[in-house]
Amino acid sequence: MTKDNYPSYPGGDYHPENDDNPQNPYGSGAPGYGAPGDPYGSAAGYAGAAATPVAGGNRLVQGDGKTRAMESISYGFRAVFASPLAWIVSALGVGILSMLAFGVTFAAMFSRMSADGAFDPETGATPDPNDYQMSPLLMIFFLVIMVVAQVMFANAALKAADGRKITFGDFYGGPNFGKAIVFVVIVNLIVSALPYLLPGALQVILNAAMVFLGPLYMLMYLYVLDQGASFGDAVKRGFKAGTRNYLSLLGFSIVWGIIIIISAIPLGLGMIITMPAYMAALAYVYRQASGGIYPED
Description:
The structure is a single chain. 57% of the residues lie in helices and 3% in strands. It contains nine helices and two strands. The chain has helices spanning 69-82, 84-116, 136-161, 177-193, 200-217, 220-227, 231-244, 246-263, 271-290; strands at 59-62, 293-296. A two-stranded antiparallel sheet has the order 1-2.
């Protein structure tokens, strides 16, 4: 079995998927998880056992390679409300930065339009079409905010999947944080550029089809962030997990997309809860698909 570099269990460094003893796949015991003959003790997660509660669930279990998209909905919100201050304040901060970026963009756009002159029905004068385009520097700034925020929230979501309550320090740092940012930038550039490599009609079709392609690459960067996988290995394993769980992940994307759109109706305020919940849910299905640990009721 592949050795996966998952974060430590609370109280120890034991991971069943990394055990080298085929006769005893559960190891010889981990600190805080029972006696050597029974490494999980009474919190093993077996039916009827008294599980020790963890943030977001009642026990830690190991994924079997299959995702359960509908379970992720309740888990995502449980994870956020298990550590509401860190999740909601961080989401609010990202929202404010995003609004500032949009504000600066539109201010620059209207400034250029004003300099060129507004539409005049008598002369037919119109602003330069380039005035409606986002400045390359502002576009890069906005992209950086979105990518860094994505990796930060994924970083915290993976900690939550270990059964931990989240603090502000869980959003950044770790040996794979910068590597994951680079990977996400590369994937975003490729995905964004693909439609423009095709003729006009095919561009529209590919843009519409992106929601159906999402399950094939949506988990890739989590292999980099969580396990330090090489870019090539992350692509291979993420694609394999995506094809194996395609319909489940497609349903995940559609349902969470609807939830986020509805939450954006009240001035976008609901998104300070639904966006963190989505990231927690994504880490949840990733751990299921990759055979990692995650909290379960």
